[in-house]
Amino acid sequence: MIVTVSKGQQITIPSRYRKDLNLRIGSKVELVKRRSEIIIKPIGEDLGKLFEQAKKLKPKYRLTARQMDELVENEILGQ
């Protein structure tokens, strides 16, 4: 099926595909670029629920992204 990129740089997923994949307003999808293709993959509700639960978790330690990277590097390098 051919669709057109709109003025706002958007595309519309045809209703046939939305219904087949149970996509609704607010559904999450993953975009994957492979060479000259863009693949749209629905993210299942279970994964969506997992992300919502993860947002509610409080970290045991308050580390910056840099500190976490350093810990991982040290673990990998055995320092």
In short:
The protein is α+β, with helices and mostly antiparallel strands. The protein contains three helices and two strands.
Chart the SSEs and their pairings.
Layout: H1 15-20, E1 29-34, E2 37-42, H2 45-56, H3 65-77
Antiparallel strand pairs: 1-2
From the structure above, extract its key features.
single chain, 3 helices, alpha+beta, 79 residues
Give a written overview of the molecule.
With 79 residues, the chain is an alpha+beta fold. It has one domain. The chain contains three helices and two strands, in the order αββαα. Strands 1-2 form a two-stranded antiparallel sheet. A hairpin with a 2-residue loop joins strand 1 and strand 2 (37-42). It is elongated and about 50 Å long.
Helical content class? 25-40%
Number of alpha- plus pi-helical segments: 3
Q: In the residues, how many domains can be counted?
A: 1
The major β-sheet equals: 2 strands, antiparallel
Write down the overall mean pLDDT: 85
Poorly predicted runs are none
Give, in order, the helices and strands. HEEHH
User: Reading side by side through the largest sheet, how are the strands ordered?
Assistant: 1-2
Beta-strand residue fraction? 15-25%
Tell me the total number of β-strands. Answer: 2
Tell me the structural class.
alpha+beta
- Rg, please? 19 Å
The N- and C-terminal alpha carbons lie at a distance of: 54 Å
- The backbone outline, from C-alpha atoms, is elongated
